[in-house]
Amino acid sequence: MKYLLLIAGILLSLSACENNGGGEGGDPSEPLVFVSLTADKDTISPGETTKITAVATGYQITYTWLKSAGIITGSGSQVTYTVPPCDLGRNRVTCRVTDGNNATLSKEVYIVAE
């Protein structure tokens, strides 16, 4: 019985930890706002990586990442971008945020590979 009460208490505490910021849960009337899209480094050498971070607020946000070249790893609001040797030049990375009401906004950053 003691363990059953412990498990019930844990389940109740977990269900009360809904995260209303950063796209989880929240208020459906909250507007989608795409605050920023930034890269730690905007010029890198082939084989190097840079971290790209999207900051958005709204209701149940999802992130979609697109690129003109290079490799994107990760998901969510922060990814890692790598430039292979054959993709020298100015490469575009686009982040599209969509909220639970199907509103969509996009921003782009450019990473120069030299």
Précis, in short:
With 114 residues, this protein is mainly β. Helices cover 12% and strands 47% of the residues. The strands form 2 sheets. Strands 1-3-6-5 form a 4-stranded antiparallel β-sheet, with no helix packed on it.
Description:
A four-stranded antiparallel sheet has the order 1-3-6-5, with no helix packed on it. Strands 2-8-7-4 form a four-stranded mixed sheet, with no helix packed on it. Strand 5 and strand 6 (78-82) form a beta hairpin. It has 114 residues and is mainly beta. The longest helix has 14 residues, at 2-15. Mean pLDDT is 83; it is low at 1-23. The chain has one domain (20-113): Immunoglobulin-like (Sandwich), CATH 2.60.40. It has one helix spanning 2-15, and strands spanning 33-39, 43-44, 49-57, 62-67, 71-75, 78-82, 89-98, 104-113.
| First-residue to last-residue Cα separation | 65 Å
What is the H/E string? HEEEEEEEE
CATH topology tier name: Immunoglobulin-like
CA-based shape: elongated
Under CATH at level 1, the class stands as: Mainly Beta
Secondary structure category: mainly beta
SSE topology sketch:
Elements: H1 2-15, E1 33-39, E2 43-44, E3 49-57, E4 62-67, E5 71-75, E6 78-82, E7 89-98, E8 104-113
Notable characteristics:
114 residues, mainly beta, Immunoglobulin-like, 4-stranded antiparallel beta sheet, 4-stranded mixed beta sheet, 1 helix, 12% helix, elongated
